[in-house]
Amino acid sequence: MLPRSRTMPSRIHHGAFEERQDIRHYLQVEAQPKAHSETEAINIQANYSKSFDDDGRLKRTGTLWTATAHVITAVIGSGVLSLAWAIGQLGWVAGPVVLTLFAFVNLYTSNLLSECYRAGDPVTGQRNYTYMDAVRANLGGRKVTLCGLIQYLNLFGVAIGYTIAASVSMMAIKRSNCFHKNGEKSPCHMSSNGFMITFGILEVFFSQIPDFDQVWWLSIVAAIMSFTYSSVGLSLGVAQVAENGSFKGSLTGISIGTLTHAGTVTAMQKLWRSFQALGAIAFAYSYSIILIEIQACTRNLLTGFGFYNPYWLLDIANIAIVVHLVGAYQVFCQPLFAFIEKWSAQKWSKSDFVTAEYDLPIPFYGVYQLNFFRLIWRTIFVVTTTLISMLMPFFNDVVGILGALGFWPLTVYFPIEMYISQKKIGRWTSRWVALQMLSISCFFISIAAAVGSVAGVVLDLQTYKPFKTSY
């Protein structure tokens, strides 16, 4: 049997250390010890402040750089890869306008949300370590359950979207090499299933990283990859414009009557595709759903140029996408992992299977603290998201649905309602009315995006065979 490890620091109780074992460390809240003399109080206070925050938790180890890496990894993800398709649907006028409006809305509401990191006083108030904690402190009631349901369902969906996006980039590498070898007229058809399984296997290993604050190095690597493939995409776009001597596309986007892989675009399909594009753009700004957690610690962009040379440059960019999505998957899933494990540790606090951790020596790494519940449930989670991705490999449709489901409630509604509650903004005041108008407008945008994305799924299902999707 592996040696059992101590899963949390020693608890301080009246100046003495009491060893606590087999309780998950994120449940730990330290009580500042009481001193018996003034001198002892000074010494204890000094040592205590070095180890714990003002709310009794262990000092946070995150920095501005690690937080920035998390944000970049979350923002420049698979959502960016669908923007070319989205702008193609809306055209050169509506596309940039919608993109800019979403950016301003997200920036504004994210600032409102960050104001809710502490309950009460924004400087000295109690910290809210998760999005649900912030909703609980400011709104309470059933809204907490509703928020949790939407947030964690959205995070689950993001994992599916990232699995699909990574498989598309993996296929792009193989297809570009196939075209380079056999010519651009070669069909080079292949299935996405093997690539999704490969990505799933990678995530099984990386999902065993215990906590959100321990994936900072993966986020830094992912952020570097983000800049890599974004730079390649921009460079290829500029090169294509220079080669053509003009900009392609139209002011109103894809035209009625255009022949696509799904058939001829009808007037109704044009409407649905435009609505779906709203969802895709909304998804590109979906990092608000993990902003509090950060604060507390297929038209693939590179396969839609119409050419596959220089193939080696496209390979580098697509490899960068895959590496980035490996990290982004963890950034979005770690809050969901923590929620399930915290809830399980509270419900089955006496179960060794759920709470006990064991020291597992790993060569060239050190000692890894193995928890059997974490190992099994996270593996099941990754396997489930992989299987669903193989069942519904419709990248743009999935991205649009996720954007529609998450944008209004998590990016707009809850931040606005929490801000109104915290700042005690009165009903029917000018600011209250302005905030409500913003919320209602975004609600209708989310409804339109959801309708368009569902219509896209229905269209794709007409030619769909489970586990037999190929490109």
Automatic annotation (TrEMBL):
Q: Which organism is it from?
A: Escallonia herrerae
Q: Name one GO cellular component term.
A: membrane
Keywords in alphabetical order? Amino-acid transport, Membrane, Transmembrane, Transmembrane helix, Transport
Q: By its UniProt entry, which PANTHER family does this protein fall under? A: OS05G0424000 PROTEIN-RELATED (PTHR48017)
Q: Which residues form the signal peptide?
A: none
Q: Which InterPro entries match?
A: AA_transpt_TM
Residue ranges of the Amino acid transporter transmembrane domain? Answer: 61-296, 299-458
One Pfam family cited in the UniProt record for this chain: Aa_trans
Q: Which GO terms describe its biological process?
A: amino acid transport
Does the entry feature the keyword Transmembrane, yes or no?
A: yes
Chief subcellular location equals membrane
Output the superkingdom of the source species: Eukaryota
Annotated TM spans = 64-83, 90-108, 149-173, 215-239, 277-296, 316-340, 375-395, 401-420, 432-459
> What's the name of the protein?
Amino acid transporter transmembrane domain-containing protein
Q: Where is the protein situated, by its record's location annotation?
A: Membrane
